[in-house]
Amino acid sequence: MTSGLSDFTEVTSELFESACCVALQALKHAWQGPPLSSWRDDSDPCGGDWVGITCTNSRVTSIILSSTGLTGGLPGDIGQFTELVVL
After folding, report:
1. pTM for the full predicted model
2. What architecture is the 2-80 domain classified under in CATH?
């Protein structure tokens, strides 16, 4: 049975990572200002060096971009970050 739980956990994690990346890309496209070149579609925000993103246990917990000069609103995708504590 352990294998089944492990498989479920892996699939759930992959789905979350995909939703997380989609949500971050939506934020990136909603904002105006200098490009966030480290926010690439083909990289993991929790496994790479995404400017302003902090993760804990593969979950985005902090988005700090105050010194980047970005402007714009927050799209509804921000709700994807269930562990976000700092914005």
Report:
1. 0.72
2. Alpha-Beta Horseshoe (3.80)
